[in-house]
Amino acid sequence: MLPRRSDTASALAPLLGAVLLTALALWTLPWREGLGRPRTLLDRSTARALAPGYRLITDALRAMPGGASFVVRTEPPDAEFETWYHRLGVALAPGRRALPAAYLGVFTPPEVWREAEYLVLVGPRPRQAPGELVLSTPNGTVWRRGKS
Amino acid sequence: MAPLAWLGTLILLPLLGAPLLARGAFGRFAPGARVVLAAGVGAALVSFAMTLFCLAGVPWGLAAIALAAALFAAALSALVRGKATAPAQERLGRTGALAVALSGVCVLVALAATDAGAATSVDLFYFWGPKAQQFAIARGVDTAFLAGPFHDYMHAYYPPLVASLDALATIAAGRFSWTCATLTFPLLLGALAVALPGVLRGAASRSAAAAVSALVIAAIAVIGVRANIAGNGDMPLLFFETLAMALLLRPDASDPAVQLLAGLLLAGAASAKVEGLAFALAAAALFLALRGGGLADSAKAAARLLIPTAVTLGAWFAFGATRRLFTAYSEYGPFFALHPDHWPSVATGIPLALAATGRALPYAVPLICLAAAGRPGRRAILPLGTAAALLAFVVFTYLHLATDPSQWISYSAARILSPLPMLFALAAVCARRLSREAA
Asked: Which residues from B are below 8 Å from A11, CB to CB?
């Protein structure tokens, strides 16, 4: 059975809308950056600012044994980013214990993370070594902390 | 192999819904639509089974959960009687073929953007993924983890479907797959693209159903990429809401089998995200108000539409209450504790958030198409009234925050209001020029 002419005409409005939005969808693709798979799932998202910490935490898994506790900090310290990186630490390091250096954008008291065995430090290497360096990457460093 | 096993678990969901969808009453749907509807029912029943296991203190096991879900589907099939046949053969035509091609392009765009890391939801890493990962390790909803210090942001009370299904896939695969979790966005969009034209065919001609479906798929694709929904609960929510609304708009929506199916999908929506409950209540109430009929018939229809939601959320809240974890959706304070002084932030923040998402085109274009499709029929009250109710719910929720909600609105409004363009597009099906019923 052939479609009636009126059927086709009545479908034109949603069809034109779909054409316009499909063009917009194609335009939203990151053509300039390329469509290849990036190093992290956040690299081209609106949360791309967190990608360096994401990379460092996943790299740190090689240096931190299962069951280890760790804290993610930034250099210089930033309570907002440290809040988000604590959450990434919980997500990306299962079987290890992520302790928060900041929560809801506010630094936590140092007692909260004092027992952390490892320090994952996003950003430049600090002038004073906070422990034994176990990993260094372009995104930051990982340190085994001494007993406090 | 692990990613294949992860996604494979979700692809098997149609088998668990099949005992219900195999009934002759659902022969009215094209085979592709029937498989996707079975997946939706399977997902809702699996989530319900996993909640019941937790409530009973039984650890999650793949085979036991699958068996329980299939048994629920078989038990529900006893409520379905009669047979129905698919609409008469009708050529797709050039208009319909173009619409199908557009839907396909949009699904590929969603896939490419997701694979390129351009659509990833950061909430996947904040709570959806960690919960699923931990629940898989604990073989159940891990109350100690949710109640742990500095874990408030996990939103323990959030309905369980997304975390539970992701945990099930994680158990099957042996580990959580962040990539596969993001791929649920294009996968579910593709499933909608397959099912929606078939479900809408009862309400419109084949070409019109394909065109409206393409409009829905394109709007979701743009919002999904721009607002970064890959891996969070928004796409599963849209999947359930879209199919449920499309079913309720069909001329045969008075059939008990169609109502039961819509009720199960509304339960899926309510189990996926908090706002799914608002959607389910609004859609069911408007449907009942529009259908008319006697009190007894209305009561039966209400039961078919709402009992699945009441039972699934009832089980979830019973679990929360017995474990002293939560008793309600109450993160933002008492129900009527509003902050009207934040009204200016809400009134300006929402339009700004939508304007930042493809210049608001994915919201405006379906609305313009609705106006261009001609005078809306009475049934258009259902999607448009639901859209109004959802908008009111979102404003009500934003006004609950004690502090200025501007930042919250800026990163959430585009996602939370993503069902609106879908509802505008589906309302176009009710326009007198497109409506099969009017013809």
From this structure: 95-96, 99, 205, 207-208, 210-212, 434
Identify whether A102 is part of a domain. yes
Run of H or E including A144:
strand A140-144
The amino acid at B63: A
A127 by Cβ neighbours in 10 Å (0-12 / 13-18 / 19+) ranks as exposed
CA B90 to CA A1: how far, in whole Å? 5
Q: Could you tell me if B318 and B183 are in contact, meaning their C-beta atoms sit under 8 angstroms apart?
A: no
- Any domain includes A55: yes
Q: Domain span at residue A126?
A: 48-144
Q: Do residue A28 and residue B365 have CB atoms under 8 angstroms apart?
A: no
* Residue A121 maps to a domain: yes
Is the sign of the CA dihedral B375, B381, B383, B385 positive or negative? positive
Q: Flag if A24 and B211 touch (Cβ within 8 Å).
A: no
Per DSSP bridges, beta strands A69-74 and A97-99 are parallel
The residues spanned by each domain of chain B are: 2-84+92-429
Does the CA dihedral B363-A33-A51-B148 come out positive or negative?
positive
CB contact under 8 A, B125 and A87: yes
The token pair at B285 is 């109430």
Residue A2 has pLDDT above 50, yes or no: no
Give ipTM to 2 decimals.
0.93
The arrangement of strands across the sheet holding A140-144 comes to A97-99, A69-74, A118-122, A140-144, A132-137
Please give the Cα distance from B304 to B294 (Å, whole number). Answer: 16
Closest partner residue to A14 (CB to CB) among B92, B137, B215 is B215
Put simply, the answer to whether A36 touches B137 (Cβ < 8 Å) is no
Interchain proximity B368–A50, CB inside 8 Å: no
Is the pLDDT reported for residue A10 higher than 80? no
Higher pLDDT, B339 or B100: B100
How confident is the model at residue B435, as a pLDDT? 65
Do strands A97-99 and A132-137 pair parallel, antiparallel, or not at all (unpaired)? Answer: unpaired
Per-residue DSSP letter, A146: P
Rg of chain B, C-alpha, whole Å = 20
Tell me the C-alpha distance between B235 and A90, whole Å.
Answer: 24
Give residue-wise pLDDT tens across range B374-400.
888 899 999 999 999 999 999 999 998
| Least Cα separation, residue B263 to chain A (angstroms) | 28
Count structural domains, chain A.
Answer: 1
Is B97 an 8 Å CB contact of chain A? no
Which residues are paired to A121 by β-bridges? A73, A141
